[in-house]
Every structure is written in C-alpha cells, then in structure tokens.
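Re-run with default settings, no changes from the original entry. Doing this only to confirm the output is reproducible before filing.
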Amino acid sequence: MGMVVMTYKINPDSNVENVDADGIASTITAMNDDVYNIQHVEVKPLAFGLKFVQVHVVMDDREGLADALEVRMAELHGVGEIEVLSMGLI
C-alpha cells in the first residue's frame, strides 16, 4: 500500500471571535500518531490580522483516513473551512 501526502489550509471560523491559530496548530501537531504523520504545521497571515493554519501530513493511502482527519480537525474550537491545497502519492 502506498502513502499519500496532503496539505491542508485551515481557515478560522468567522463566527468565533479571537480565534487562537497557534492553539489550533498545537492541537493539530498533537494529533501525530501511528496513522497520521503530521510533518509540519505553520501559522500564516490571511488578512486583516487573521491567520490560517497550514498542515502537511503523511498517511497510508487507505479509504476514509483523510476524511477522518478532516472531521477531527473540524471539531476543534475556532476551525472554520478546511481546504485541501495539495495531495499526492509518495
């Protein structure tokens, strides 16, 4: 079975005031385990003082793994839209 590398852009929830992007980044970094190899998490400027979180993760190319990770990230306080920036087999 192959591996897939994915890059996500996690935007702040527009309905939540003072979203802590650094806190979201720390929580996502802690999701690193045997299934999800969180390789890099970075907080980047978005606009007007807002920030987004960019996540690079490697996982097995199995059905449902990416969806499960997206659900876990979406459940975090302050997380709005999650966008896949890139995806590729390695």
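The radius of gyration is 13 Å. The CA atoms of residues 7 and 86 lie 5 Å apart.
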